[in-house]
Amino acid sequence: MAASVESIKFDEIAKEVTRVTPKTIYEKLSLIQLELKAPKSQFNKFGNYYYRSCEDILEAVKPLCNKHEATLMIGDEIVCIEGRHYVKATAVLIDWETGKNVRNVAYARESATKKGMDDSQVTGSTSTYARKYALNGLFNIDDT
Predict the structure, then answer these.
(1) CA dihedral of 8, 14, 18, 21, whole degrees rounded to 10
(2) Span 24-48, mean pLDDT?
(3) What CA–CA distance (Å, rounded) separates 25 from 102?
C-alpha cells in the first residue's frame, strides 16, 4: 500500500508559523511610528494656527510603547554654546527584552527674557519645546 503525500504550499505554511525571534528595537520603533497619531489639536489664537504639544505626543505614544514592550524616557541637559544657553533634550526608546535603545536629540535656545515669565518658566518652556522636537525626530512626526 502506497502512502499518499499531500502537496502543501509554502505560503500556507508561512501563515501558520509564528515569529519566534523577538522584534528588534528598530522594528518596534517602526511599528510605533506607523501607529502613532498625534493630531494638531491645540490652537494658537495669536498666530492663528493649530499645533501639537509635547503632552499631546506623549499621550498618544505611551500606550503604543506599552503595546510594543518599550519604554520612552526623556531627559534634559543645559548646555552653553558660544555664550548662549540651550536645553538639550534627549528622547530614548528602550526595548524591554534586550535593553537596547534608540535615541534622538534636539536643542532649543533659551531667550534672555520672555515677557511675563521668570527665569525658571523660561527654562521650562524651552525644555518643553526641545522635548517636543526630540520626540518629533524619534517618531518621524511631520507637519501633516
Answers:
(1) 130
(2) 94
(3) 7
